[in-house]
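User: I'm curious whether this sequence folds into something compact or stays loose and floppy. Could you predict its structure so I can see for myself?
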Amino acid sequence: MTSSHTPPDIAFGEFEQSDSHLQRKIGLWQLIAIAVTVQIGASWLLAPLATAGLAGPAAIVTWIFGGIVFTIMAIPWLEASTALPRTGISVRGPQFTHGSLLSWMNGWGYMIACITLPPIEALAALTYLGGQFPNLHLLHVVDGVTMLTWPNGIVGAAGLIALFFVLNVFGVKVLAKTSAWLSLWKIVIPIAVAILLFTAFKSENVTQYGGFAPLGTSAIFHAMTAGGVVFAFNAIRVIADFGGESENPRKHLPIAIVVGGLIIPLVIYLTLQIGFLGVMDWSSLGLAPGDWAGLSESNWAASPLVDALAVAGFAWFGTILLMDAVAAPAVTGLTFAGISGRTTYANSVNGSLPTIFQRLNRFGVPWVAMTLCAVVSLLFLFPAPSWYQMVGLVSTALIVSYLMGSPLVMVLRRTAPELTRPIRLPAAGFVCGFAHAASLLVIYFAGWWTLTNLLTIFFFALPISAAYIGPRLGWFGHAAGYTIAITFTAVWVVLAWAGGWILTVGTTKRADSLDDWTFIGLFVAVVFATLAVLWVASNADGRKQVAASVWLPVSLLVAMVASYITDTTNGHEKVFGDLWTALMVFAAGLASAVWATRSGFATEEILDVLRSEEALARSRDERSENAESRRDHQV
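Assistant: Here's the prediction. I'll summarize afterward.
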């Protein structure tokens, strides 16, 4: 099935009819600009100090290692996104290999993460603005958490979210052009800062004061997560979600992922880190020379690059830097507002949400999905300290979707060998297994408190699937679905509160809560009990799809338990060392990759696409034969 909007070499299944009406107007350079936009948010202003405080000059290695790890994690998406260039492929991918339940669990987590990012970036923009201009009364501190005030701060953030919505609904061309110009700003300013810092570079900061790795080699890896390196790169393959609106996705997506998602951000972050290390002035920092661990509480902690520029003799550039501190997160919020709408659209195409969210406006934009996401984003501005922290951690659910890439590639190799693949990975089994294990390792690095809260939200996908997806697909009746959904939700809410870790300020645990191991045991038991009930209640098709999905909850629960045995908060002592635990999680990731690959099957959706590809090939051959016949006739 094709249309005037569809490149002649891309086939869509009958269930993807709305895709043919998407407008393919995003060119290569605009794709690269969008990729840079989502990779370089406000974190570049603080990450150089944070990583240096954790690893010293070896923070340089931390950035390089982080780039390598996320490159490995993104490699499977080079094949997957070009074989199936779809809007929202991060969500839709599992539908082609494992069915509706896994697709919805992944789609639910990804959708919530994308919806929370615009308010997070709006908060970041106003935080920088309010910090420099307190008379605007945008911010106040409650229980140690910086929050927006009412009405100034919250109304200002709501205005930014509304602006994100308007710019997105007027078409991908408006979004792409806006991102292109603003991304140029986001590239030029950090590079200019790095160049200015290099003019005052002092090599002794890198070689003396404890040497290159004063805090040990293990600090290099710890700084990946605690220093923000992981989350600086975690959107490297988000650009694949614009595959359905790219002019030439099979050619342009890989270039945009590599150039815009990896090379440009890595060069910027690396040069900034080196420049910052070279310009550091210990007396200005208020620290004894070599006190790397004290950087987080130094005189430069609030605005490290502004202070570094002042020491280098370029204090005047600090004003421009402050402008960027507002613009950078705002541009990232704009882009993720578009991604959240496309993610909701993708969930609807998969059948996980009603078809109304596939409605497009005259600009080819899923405006109903965009409207829903904008409204829900506003709810995340709710002024409570624990809620603000919850919003921040939910955004880490973006990393969960990396676990989908490797199974997508390997299952399609088995079930759809004839599928058109512009990029075919060599040694795919090894590469995908390694990428999958690395992804699970990064999820584990998020830590106990983050994973406990995140998975509490993530597993709400199960009652939603029971109430809507199961009855819609005929796995079981509405009465059974509602009973499962209501029962799980009630038990889950009670358990979450009784555990003492949910919606707490900081990483503290509420008093009079369940023992941690009791909580973990009940947490795991409720998840497995719900999956078992879904399997028992379903017909044969439902059972096959539930069974194909179990590997994901198991993998995430393994990461959560592993994070607890290395947790040190609230007086807890480590059960195992960090290195051994990381190796166990990596091994579990390899096992998960094998399990996920074997769980996949030839879904109706991929068979539908293959039939469409065959029809497209026949049509192309017929046109070629007719053209040749006309030439022969003319001769």
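Summary: DSSP finds 26 helices and two strands in the chain. The longest strand covers residues 139-142.
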